[in-house]
Every structure is written in C-alpha cells, then in structure tokens.
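Bench notes, afternoon.
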Amino acid sequence: MLNSKSTLVGGLTVAVLAVALILSGFGAAVALGGVGGGTPSTTTATTTVTNSSSNSPFVVTLVIATNSIYNVTAADQPAYFVLGPNGLQTSASISLPANRLIKLVIVNYDDGSANLTAPSYNVVSGTTDGSIFVASNDNINSSEGPSGIVVNGGQTLTTVPTDEIAHTFTVPSLNLNIPVPLSSTVVAYFTVDKAGSYLWFCETGCGDFAMSTPGWMTGSLVAS
C-alpha cells in the first residue's frame, strides 16, 4: 500500500524528475500543473514521439503541480501541463494519434489527497491490461550489490486506496480512468481506436475553478 505521508522537497523533486525521464524514454511530451495566473491559455499542446516508427508507443508525459494562481479570488489551484519540445505547454488540448499505442506518463507533485467525485474512480479502467505502474519515493527500495545498484521498487496496481489519490486522469467516452497517487509517477498504456475529440477530467474535488477550466483540471484529447 502506498504511503500517503509524502513530503515534497528539493531532493525529491529531482528524484521524481529522474524517475519520470527514465520511465518515459528519451523524448516525451509532458503536462505540468498550472504555471502563472490570469486567463488560462487555450493554445493546442503538441506532443512529441520518442521513436519515428509507428510500431513504438507514442509518449505523452503529464505533470501536475499545485502552486499556480488562477486569479486573485481563487488563489492556488492545481493544474496539468504538457511538456513539449520547447518546454511546458497548456493541457487544454492534447494531440495524439488514433489507432496507435499511447504511453502516458504522469508526474505528480501534489502530496495532498482529495475526495473523489464517485468512489469508483479509485479503480483503473481503459488501459491495455487494466493496470498502471506507480513509482514513488515510498515504494522504491533499491540497494547496492556486488555489480552495482540492484533496482527494486514500484508497484503495478489495478486500484488505489481512496485516501491516497491526489487526482485522476479520466476520459469518460474512452472508459479511461487513471487514479494518480500522492507525489508519484504513473505509467499507463492505452489506445484511442477512433479519431475525434474526447474530454478529459480530474475526478477529485481539487478546486472548483480548476475543475471547470480547460488547461487546468480538464481539457480535450484530440486523436487524429
């Protein structure tokens, strides 16, 4: 079981980024929690491909952060961002290919749990094998062996305890639901079988403004 008592410090930030880069491969497109304030950007985020071959997964990396000021009234709100080839981009519209395996990497810096809008959102659905891989500072237990570091840690999960969920990445029309544990990196695989635009949401009570504003805790997946 994941430990919900996580503390985000400088060293952990570096460690989480390192794990994310390893898990996502050489090239990735990432979404990171809201940066800046005022009116959210609505420009399309362009993701990148780790391999030019259509036989390799198309990698999208999302990052969640919490210290973004929505406006002077709402103050801090969490948000997803996309990390594209030129840095962070809005997650209001995330482009990806249809009929190709997608490797989704979510780097979550939020260490606070939130109430789910429905209890069933703690269950993984819509991924290729009905599971996600989760790495966090609490479940990596590597050690030094005779030939170097012995890597041990991470968990493959089909459900996450409700009190250990910070956010979800949920696409109802694709039956895709990925619960995101506190201060963790999550890897999931899925395929969009038909071209089109699909709304995604976070299904935790993580802020009224963020939950209803594209580029914060909701947006679109555009498959083509």
